[in-house]
Specification:
Blueprint: H1 3-16, H2 31-40, E1 46-50, E2 56-61, H3 67-80
Antiparallel strand pairs: 1-2
Length: 82
């Protein structure tokens, strides 16, 4: 999926999962984002689902991001949540 197409889909996740998901698009060119990209093992960017403490629970690197896979992961993670 092209990154420009993914941005509105990610932003729409808050509406799809009201009160359960906070979605953010991050500028991957900042020094802090570059550090996070390296720590996550991404080449340039990606998608990450984190818990409330910031721990990564699901990730898709670079241009392998699938919003459908992300929805499935969110649904499964929310089923397991207390």
């Amino acid at each position: 999926m092209v990154c420009a197409k993914l941005k509105p889909a990610v932003s729409g996740l808050e509406m799809e999962y009201p009160g359960k998901v906070k979605a953010m698009n991050v500028d991957a060119s900042t020094p802090a984002a570059q550090k996070a990209i390296q720590e996550l093992g991404f080449k340039s960017h990606g998608l990450v689902i984190r818990d409330a403490t910031g721990k990564p629970l699901f990730k898709q690197p670079d241009h392998t991001v699938s919003i459908d896979d992300t929805r499935r992961a969110l649904t499964d993670l929310l089923k397991k949540a207390p």
